[in-house]
Amino acid sequence: MTTFLAGGTGTPKLLAGADGVFPPGETTVVGNTGDDVFLGGHLVCPDIDTVLFLDAEMLERERWWGVAGDTDETHRELTRLARKAGLSNGGAPRYLDERRQTEGRPLAAWRRFSAVDEFMLIGDRDRALHLTRTSLLDEGHTLTEATDLLADAYDLERTLLPMSDDPVASLVHVEGGPGRQPFQHFQEWWVGHRAEPPIDHVEFRGAETAVPTDEVLTALTDPVVLGPSNPVTSIGPMLAMDAFESALHETPVVVVSPFVGSEVYSGPATELMEAMGYEPSTAGVADAYPFADAFVLDRSDDTDLDRPVIHTDTSLDEDGDAERVALAVKDAMEVVG
Amino acid sequence: MTTFLAGGTGTPKLLAGADGVFPPGETTVVGNTGDDVFLGGHLVCPDIDTVLFLDAEMLERERWWGVAGDTDETHRELTRLARKAGLSNGGAPRYLDERRQTEGRPLAAWRRFSAVDEFMLIGDRDRALHLTRTSLLDEGHTLTEATDLLADAYDLERTLLPMSDDPVASLVHVEGGPGRQPFQHFQEWWVGHRAEPPIDHVEFRGAETAVPTDEVLTALTDPVVLGPSNPVTSIGPMLAMDAFESALHETPVVVVSPFVGSEVYSGPATELMEAMGYEPSTAGVADAYPFADAFVLDRSDDTDLDRPVIHTDTSLDEDGDAERVALAVKDAMEVVG
């Protein structure tokens, strides 16, 4: 068995074509939950959901989230109603006030948003996933159990695990003027405000008390692959749990850099790395991952690292790219495993 | 101003054609909330919603609930996922366990259902209403305020008020064998089990501490019309609040009987009246409404009552029916007002 740590779109893009190298039935994916939100009372787990839809062959693969061909009747009506009632602020996120952030369901803490004028586009079939998940929690299941039931529902061969059954919320502390809330939930900063304003630092609220599940700790005894995910908000929430990072020191770990030298493939990794005091580059990734045993870097990435490196073309745009990168990961694993 | 008390479909059917007699801008509707449910975490207010959709000219007028021409992508996907995950029990209601009924949001008490294998058909645009309402509660609004904002969103000229901002849950106590839950929420009994099994009695849980809002008490100082709604589960939850029934004794009240003699027009009023110890008939309705000052009865209903009666054809099936009944209500109001 091989365990992949997944957040954002980088690792799913690798998984999407890696089945011939890492058969799904022999892989576990541990999904980041730091960027989950409770939107209108429903738990949306973007990083888990991408893997569910990918393996169900339902994923919208232009944008790498949501369901291909989904309708958006509810979302459009939410927008219309908000406008008609004078409640719209242009689709900006409506983060609930501080007191309400910790009311009710503990798993929702620090990430509760109103669905009035819904700020994320949730498709109609996509929404059924969030409703089912939330109702499974209501019925008394843990998030791990709910995810396992959903994996059955979507016919996954893979084992899919949330990183924890406890709440961890990625909060982006921003450089704000007077009166501005000093932080934004990651989704608010990323989806709602398109990565504005500039970041001071990222907090993983809850991580000091959250623990990885037993299932995750067991999965971390297998060789571990970190795909080209953003080290701060995709992998950072996992590492923020002490037991998680400790486990990675005890197992072979191969990392695919999300950078080519200092150029990032996609997403907000550059700003986030800088805010956390890391160089936004492959060298910075290596600093952020002291437990990594080997790296897969792009052919044109000549970063000099103190650990084994396998070079290949690490782009993940065309058919065949993922298989090539997966083979490089396998080579790297043979070096360190 | 005139105030209508509305539950189920009887009173909405009267309102649907009464605008020429009772202009919407001069009417208040107080909606029953005893049959509301929190389904998958969203507050569904069937009796309020029917009035919202009616006045918005969006109501599906074959079945008198939901949105005409609505899609059901989310609902069908909820059903599919439940089946695939082995969680389906044929669309039967999934009432949360007793401990969870009173966890979290107080307004949800005793009416919390899972949306796994969603037992009520919620259309996609319909769902946007429940999501907006619930998020308005999350944002700190009362149900009265949320309803008022929704009335704006749907362009209502009418004033629409929930009977209370407190939870009242209509629980149908059933004649069950060993191991059977001794009660079912009204929606479970009515929608989920098609009015089976037989009823022992109906409890309005919460009514002893719930109070009508100030807005409702003010509306009850205007002349009041009870359309042909079911006295037990449509009007009963209102009357179960002492201050509500007291207010009706102080104001002119006209009742349109939902029966013709002992024949009910529609719905489960017969079984419910019997369970509550009333004769299932116009005479029983008069017993249930000691505060009523006059009645509108069908031409063929020769029930002898101790209060003034106006006769007309009380059927509400065709265009023109509602206006005819509304005119009879106005005549009755003139007798007692």
Q: What can be said about the biggest beta sheet of chain A?
A: 7 strands, parallel
Q: In percent, how much strand structure appears in the residues of chain A?
A: 15-25%
Give the low-pLDDT segments of chain A. none
Rg of chain A, rounded, reads 19 Å
Overall form of chain A: globular
Oligomer designation: homodimer
The helical percent of chain A reads 25-40%
- Lateral strand order in the biggest sheet of chain A: 6-2-1-10-11-14-15
Q: Distance between the terminal alpha carbons of chain A, to the nearest Å?
A: 13 Å
Order of SSEs of chain A: EHEEEHHHEHHEEEHEHEHHEEEHHEEH
How many strand segments of chain A? 15
Which structural category do the helix and sheet elements of chain A fall into? Answer: alpha/beta
What is the overall number of helices of chain A? 13
Largest interface: A-B, 47 and 47 residues
| Overall average residue pLDDT of chain A | 95
